[in-house]
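Lab meeting, item 3. Inverse folding demo.
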């Protein structure tokens, strides 16, 4: 009876998992179809597999190949992720471990920014970056993250720190370590799972960000993948869906690879961060 119950449970889980993954499976299969077969064959297995979508899609309709847009995405993601990890760890450490005048007000203000929709701050940000002369550069995408502009990550790290005893930090101070040394050599190693979660979130959100680059970047040679995929869709004439799907698959690969490589630390960081509020 127990064996039958387990078999039914796994069968149901496998069925639900397949339904959830089917759009991704279909996307991968359709990327190997011809443009006409995508509309005639609803299944995910191509009848006449071809890599023409990948070859032609990689060339794009611009003077640049898709490699340029991948490189631009990397140039946006790397500084933004590193800046987020450093700034948010420092700010969270200050809120979690120190008492200072106005701490409660500042923390309440930080939490209040989580309630603001991004669209509310788009115009003020645009006007600020325009006056600074940063339009059509990567700076508007980098700088806010370098100054702990993502309140969610700060709050997440604060919750993680509250669950960590202070014994090792106090021992380091007794040995003569200053605040910065304590943060770098004691706190950051203990924060590693949470910091990996922060970096992973930021990586995926930046990969999927369409509105930010669309607002601040105007030169095609600076476009990331998200905007490059939009360039592949020309509303004035028929376009090749297999090319778009093929490049969509390539655009998904970095996020999937990074997620599965960091999955263990990601789950640990999320679960530990919610132990104590």
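The presenter then showed the designed sequence:
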């Amino acid at each position: 009876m127990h064996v039958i119950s387990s078999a039914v449970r796994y069968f149901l889980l496998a069925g639900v998992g397949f339904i959830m993954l089917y759009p991704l499976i279909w996307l991968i299969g359709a990327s190997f179809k011809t443009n006409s077969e995508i509309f005639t064959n609803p299944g995910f297995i191509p009848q006449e597999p071809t890599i023409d979508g990948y070859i032609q899609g990689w060339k794009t309709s611009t003077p640049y190949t898709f490699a340029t847009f991948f490189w631009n995405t990397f140039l946006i993601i790397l500084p933004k992720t590193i800046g987020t990890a450093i700034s948010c760890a420092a700010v969270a450490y200050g809120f979690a471990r120190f008492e200072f005048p106005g701490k409660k007000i500042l923390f309440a203000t930080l939490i209040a920014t989580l309630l603001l929709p991004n669209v509310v701050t788009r115009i003020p940000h645009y006007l600020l970056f325009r006056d600074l002369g940063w339009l059509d550069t990567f700076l508007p995408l980098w700088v806010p993250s370098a100054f702990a502009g993502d309140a969610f990550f700060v709050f997440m790290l604060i919750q993680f720190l509250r669950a960590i005893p202070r014994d090792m930090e106090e021992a380091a101070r007794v040995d003569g370590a200053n605040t910065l040394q304590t943060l770098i050599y004691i706190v950051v190693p203990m924060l590693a799972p949470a910091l990996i979660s922060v970096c992973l979130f930021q990586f995926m959100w930046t990969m999927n960000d369409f509105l930010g680059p669309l607002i601040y970047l105007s030169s095609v040679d600076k476009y990331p993948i998200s905007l490059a995929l939009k360039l592949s869709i020309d509303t004035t004439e028929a376009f090749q869906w297999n090319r778009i799907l093929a490049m969509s698959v390539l655009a998904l690969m970095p996020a999937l690879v990074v997620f599965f490589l960091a999955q263990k630390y990601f789950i640990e960081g999320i679960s530990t961060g919610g132990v104590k509020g």
